[in-house]
């Protein structure tokens, strides 16, 4: 199958669509990507890329990537994000048709993280190419805009809701990353288009690279709880810091936060104000070190804010954590919590329950190694049956081929 992926974000930005595109190619399909100039999560254009003009590159030796200019996110304030979102839509409509004008596609696959407005150039390309249009929905608008405080005006939220009805109406297939997405998406679309399609974990890395000494030292002589990923408003970073404060008298426990995002500086400020030395922020680290980091961690942490909409989301890090075969500790509600509990792969407390999180971390730190290993193995088995990347690629193709036959 010839697949055109439309995503505002792509490598070197760290999103699951990068590895999933590789998985599709490994299964024998042709993948082309149209995206923007990378600027996530720092808000600045990545080194090696110019902000102006379009560009072409090859990812993974076999995936053609076309990039269009956009306004960087900057400090991720509301105005900066709105301009970033709008610039991708305008630039995509202006440049994408020209960049892929001599190519034919069977399917246009839109990777639907925020902003969902990025679906607009995807719909236009599918119409121009007479291709099947599939949205892989990762975020629920307008609900998530309200939950994160990005948009609070009721009139504006109502307009976004109308826009989403129009966007969903253009799609032939709506792929839902969480079963809890079914009801809210069905309100704005034809239920016959809906298919549950969870996020896969990244392609397995078969080799581990030694960690730099400064990272290796972070994990020495302690039971480490590692959070890996974006530090944004949805991740409830205050919960992590408060749990660390409550564990400050447990010198054998250390929280390690790997990643960055719009809340990273706020998190560092809170740590400094409280004088905490049992929580370490490593900043962004290279992807090649992640397998070694997962192996060194005693358990892996996932947190979300206490918002109804976030309870419907399954954070992609849960799949990656299960793949790593480590116990998971979560402070979240809804679908993500249900999966961890149902699989026996870790311990869960309510979203933003910092006291409960601290107690659960302490409980894990005193568990026998055999029980920790059993939790990790339970998650790993569930991952292999439900989230393995190449198996998910085959499942997607089967879904699309079936739906294209009854389009």
Q: What's the SSE blueprint?
A:
Elements: E1 2-6, H1 16-26, E2 30-36, E3 55-59, E4 63-68, H2 78-99, E5 107-112, H3 119-129, E6 132-137, H4 143-147, H5 154-170, E7 173-176, H6 182-187, E8 194-196, H7 213-218, E9 223-228, H8 237-246, E10 253-258, H9 264-274, E11 279-283, H10 290-296, E12 299-303, H11 316-324, E13 328-331, H12 334-343, E14 346-349, H13 354-365, H14 369-386, H15 389-405
Parallel strand pairs: 1-2, 1-5, 2-4, 5-6, 6-7, 7-8, 9-10, 9-12, 10-11, 12-13, 13-14
Antiparallel strand pairs: 3-4
Helix pairs in contact: 1-15, 2-3, 8-9, 8-13, 11-14
Tell me about this structure.
The chain has 407 residues and is of the alpha/beta class. 42% of the residues lie in helices and 18% in strands. It contains 15 helices and 14 strands. It has helices at 16-26, 78-99, 119-129, 143-147, 154-170, 182-187, 213-218, 237-246, 264-274, 290-296, 316-324, 334-343, 354-365, 369-386, 389-405; strands at residues 2-6, 30-36, 55-59, 63-68, 107-112, 132-137, 173-176, 194-196, 223-228, 253-258, 279-283, 299-303, 328-331, 346-349. An 8-stranded mixed beta sheet has the order 3-4-2-1-5-6-7-8, sandwiched between helices. Helix 1 (16-26) packs across helix 15 and helix 2 runs parallel beside helix 3 (119-129). The chain is globular, with a radius of gyration of 21 Å. It starts with a strand and ends with a helix. 46% of the residues are buried.
